[in-house]
Write a structure and sequence with these properties.
Elements: H1 2-5, E1 7-8, H2 10-17, H3 25-37, E2 41-47, E3 50-55, H4 57-65, H5 79-83, H6 87-101, E4 109-117, E5 122-131, E6 139-145, H7 151-166, E7 168-170, E8 180-182, H8 183-187, E9 197-202, H9 207-220, E10 228-232, H10 233-237, E11 243-246, H11 250-256
Parallel strand pairs: 6-9, 9-10
Antiparallel strand pairs: 1-3, 2-3, 4-5, 5-6, 7-8, 10-11
Helix pairs in contact: 2-3, 7-9
Length: about 260
């Protein structure tokens, strides 16, 4: 599990590896102590009373050697994030992964996935990406907002996805022939027919404040040309439905983002 989500508490790990009606925290706690003694796992902070666990570089290598996960050579251990105080955010991302996909699809997730367009300078990290191993490689993007950023910054992060989806590049090695195509479709999600839907998950505040934040975000991204769904983490964990606040509109994106200059 730590190879997929990077950081987790004993409670979170126990919810995955034990039966739903069982409490496997004692078992997991003993297992993590044994892994720590072997130098494969470590803890660099706490969330409340719960230790936050992550794999060490040696643990990641052991996981890769066992072919348990697809190769992820650039994946970090999560230790730096915990030491820098981002442990609660990372744990909320882990809760989001568990609430949306549960134990069934853990191997299909990646966290902290960079999306960048060198030509425009656009670069941002997506908190979590789910890629189901289907014929069309259906992909879902997830952003977790724990209520610490401003409303304007949250809206900008969502609009960045439209800017990324709208970028186009010329065909041909030197961009001198043919027409243009979406950058994301050729260089990132090559098997997806539509730009992946973005899921924004809100948490970290009282439910009525999360409702206010949801309504404000809806207003801030009105007219966006990518699919955006939003929910609060408590409601997601209870299985409640998402709110649709953006619709995929590739034709509208073509109008907003001009063709790149030819070479």
């Amino acid at each position: 599990m730590l190879g997929c989500v990077r950081i987790a508490t004993v409670r979170q790990m126990a919810s995955v590896i034990t039966a739903e009606e069982s409490d496997g925290r004692s078992y997991v706690r003993r297992a993590m102590v044994e892994l720590a003694e072997l130098g494969l796992a470590e803890t660099n902070g706490k969330h409340g009373k719960d230790k936050i666990w992550n794999l060490t570089p040696a643990g990641q290598r052991a996981l890769a050697d066992g072919n348990e996960l697809p190769p992820r050579p650039k994946a970090g251990t999560g230790a730096k994030a915990v030491k820098a105080g981002f442990g609660p955010h990372g744990l909320a991302v882990t809760d989001t992964v568990l609430a949306y996909g549960g134990r069934r699809s853990l191997n299909d997730w990646q966290v902290e996935v960079n999306h960048a367009v060198k030509e425009t300078g656009l670069s941002f990290n997506t908190d979590a990406v789910l890629a189901w191993p289907t014929k069309t490689s259906e992909v879902r993007l997830f952003e977790l907002d724990n209520g610490t950023m401003s409303q304007a910054r949250l809206a900008k992060e969502v609009w960045d996805y439209e800017r990324y989806a709208g970028h186009r590049v010329w065909e041909g090695a030197r961009g001198t022939i043919g027409g243009t195509y979406p950058f994301w479709q050729r260089h990132r999600y090559t098997r997806s027919k539509t730009f992946p839907r973005l899921h924004v998950v809100l948490e970290g505040k009282a439910e009525h404040l999360l409702d206010n934040r949801l309504q404000a975000l809806t207003a801030d991204v009105r007219g966006i040309a990518v699919a955006v769904w939003v929910n609060t983490l408590p409601r997601l964990q209870q299985g409640e439905p998402w709110y649709e606040i953006g619709v995929d509109a590739p034709d509208r994106r073509r109008e907003r983002y001009p063709e790149p200059a030819g070479r």
